[in-house]
Amino acid sequence: MRLIEEIILLLLNEESGYLEQVAGWNLSCVLAGAVLADLDLESRIDTAHETLKLDDSTPVGDDLLDPVLATIVRDPEPRSVSYWVEKIAITSDEILDQALERLVENGILDHAIGGFWSLSRNAANAAYSMSSGESRAKIRRRIVDTILEDDIPDPRDAIIIGLANSCDAFRFLLQPEDYEASRERIELFSMLDRISRSVATAVSATSVRRTIKTATKPIPDISLWKLLRKDSFWQGNMSRITADLYRDYGPVFAIKAPFSKKRIFVIAGNKANIWVNRRGRMYLRSKDYISGLEEALGVSRSLPGMDGAEHYRMRKAQHTAFTKSRLNERLDELLHEVRVGLDSWKEGDVLIARDAIRSLMARQVTQLSVSLDLSDYMDDILSYKNRMLITHVQKALPKFFLKTPKMAAKGRRIDQVYAMIRNTHTPGQRENKPRDLIDDLLSLHASDPQYFPETDHKFPMIMAFVASMYMGTALAFAVFEMYSDPELLQRVRKEAEALFANGEPGPEDFTDEAMDTTHRLILEALRVYPSVPVQMRNVMNPCVVEGYEIPLGSRIIMAMTAVHYLEENYPDPLTFDIDRHLPGREETKKHGAFGTYGLGTHTCLGARVVEYQMAINLMMIAYHFDLEVMPSSYPIKINPFPTCTPRKSLKLLVKSKRPVFSSDRAVDDRAESDQQAVAITS
Hints:
The protein is an alpha+beta fold and 682 residues long. The chain is built from 28 helices and 20 strands. The N and C termini lie far apart (62 Å).
């Protein structure tokens, strides 16, 4: 294990899922210093003097160290250690990412969606032996014990202490009284080793110099009138609009409303997406823009409005509910719910694509999440949710538009649903039932009612409706593309025939190979038609994005899906091409090139499982139905507010239908339990 890996494990905070929040540039210098120290220990360089000396240019055979060694070899001029610390620190983000990935690959850390890391439960069996690699707890205990006891540290630990001290990490690693009592000892240990002395001095010097404010580029302003003149604006495709603006104005620009001095800043492009993923947690906050939505629902906190450690803890509590393994445990139930929903589509019906497929998804998503079929409530709740977004998040309408008699009645439907969910999740009602999201949330409440009080239960308990809306929208676009291309339809149908022609498939049948075409179609639909093309944040700490300084307190629009329409990421981006996702191309895997699920710590928690569930639905639709897009040769139209959806003008004619159930009739064996739930509520 290299020094940089030990530093990472030392600084890992499992409450927040990331490193202790030490000063960003100081951490960059420390990571650079750790790599230089390892090269010194490998006898490739000598840092004993003010000028760094190259002793041996032979590669170490380590992908963390060799790129830095190669950089030093290419620059034979005499340079100070401080120079090299500062030069390497500029690339510290890449070094950090690589070190974190290696810790995951070797079984020391686990990586969760959203950029969170935690100590692996199998760390004891990791690829690193315990003699050379230790758990975070053991490394911390070793370093802390060295400081608090009378022992003299070995040279390697002296380096670690010196580096950790350079970024003031012991404020987090020690109790306040221990930190104050040990400061002199820490400073002494930091100067014991020649590597520690030179690198720590370099870290200190470059950190001081880095605080000097550098000039930033002026941020271009775009008036609303310029925006209105864009053809893409009238097409409703927000991803395309922001891609056009990115090409015209660069990665950071500001939109000004007429007769107002207020500016809303937009960031777009691959590098901006990468910056949010790596650094956003330190500069951006979601609480400000989501607070109005929380207020409208009568809750004090919600997962979208949380940041930092409390957000990570809530994600962990809900993580299992959004895994493929949990869905596979209830696969029979999922397939049944899909069949019940599809059985309502009759030959000769003309379906509004968006509404029909949202209803299909609502039934199964709510059943799996809250163990109730709440599809009858979907229209009212989604209507109320959309009005909340428009009034409290986008602020496009005055707040009283949420309080009209019609909207108030729809708001009361949320209270009815909440009561139904709570009344059907008592210990007696849940006996011998498969675990769902509500069970996980109630367990969190029981374990820590202060952290997750009953006043905050309503928001996550109705999130299944929001999830079903986004999934239904994405699936509607995928169905449109599939039935608009006969060849593509046949490819998906061929996969469906193999899975469904000989009885109900099990989890072992839904392999990557068995779903290859269908999955790639889903991915391309998510690229071309992302339901949430932008997200909002507030700047909580001054930040510089690609050389543009964004003021403290500003509202930011993260146009994370603008990259979907950039030629450098996706050649001919307007073409729907599922082969983009073939091995060897895999264009969505380019760094920063795919933003469908959001960015940074608020990346969609169920990103992996939704593709799986949508693919199952798409194959079952292809297998059972011959649909016709109406009108024929329909040019897709998008409604961009409050999220991107197909317009109601997109319709599907059910030309023919293969029996959904073997008996050619739907038997909803859950109707009785749902009626009981309503009776309990009444």
